[in-house]
Specification:
By secondary structure, the protein is α/β, with parallel strands linked by helices. It contains eight helices and nine strands. It has a single domain, classed as 3-Layer(aba) Sandwich (Rossmann fold), CATH 3.40.50.150. Strands 1, 2, 3, 4, 5, 6, 7, 8 and 9 form a nine-stranded mixed sheet that branches. Strand 4, helix 6 and strand 5 form a beta-alpha-beta unit. It is globular, with a radius of gyration of 17 Å. 43% of the residues are buried. The N terminus is likely disordered. This is Ubiquinone biosynthesis O-methyltransferase.
Amino acid sequence: MTDAISGSSAQGATIRPEEAAHFGGLASEWWDPKGSSAMLHKLNPVRLAFLREAVDLHWAGDVASVRPLAGKAALDVGCGAGLLCEPLARLGAEVTGVDAAPENTAAAAAHAEAAGLDIRYMPGELGALGLGQFDLVTAMEVIEHVADKPAFVAQLAARLAPGGLMVLSTPNRTLASRTLLVGAAETLGMVPRGTHHWDDFLTPDELAELLAEAGLIMGEPKGIAFSPTKGLHLSDDLSLNFIATARRA
């Protein structure tokens, strides 16, 4: 296992206070599609397209249904101000969102209430919240920000119900991601400075290894690529960012 993922904290804590403070400081702008989270607004439909197909395949659901998650409980870890939680609720799930920054969960709760959505938001360390298990567990663009990656994946696995589905996305650790996601994106103001730390990115093989150690099998990853004509889109090119499912072995 590489240095990027081998380190473990003594208590298994996953939250980095400086990361929580960084993202908590962006809470007021999270729902502004032209604000500091503009890139997430562009990324969200791509992630949702992958997730919807994964849900339909995993539970052999009706692809025409507008509520394929009806009767299922979903947990979004690193939920920010709820950009993924709200679509999950509209897809029929009973949704819980967890985030390291209380500013984010407060903003998320206010936005959900204004939208008439019943979503439970909780700040804090996932492993300390005493949550039960969920049919669907998601962690999008989160694992690259945590202090103890093996502990974090173990916490995610503990929350996944038997027969459940997990979906994760994260930047790949490649020269392309270093140049574009860290260098160009932050220099050009596409994402706030300090958002990404390239050494913390994982390759697909490294993520698969972490999941295997937690008793999970990773599905075939799909790339999230960018082109001037398509914008962000699902692709076979994994060099910038990738998204994958996981299930119990």
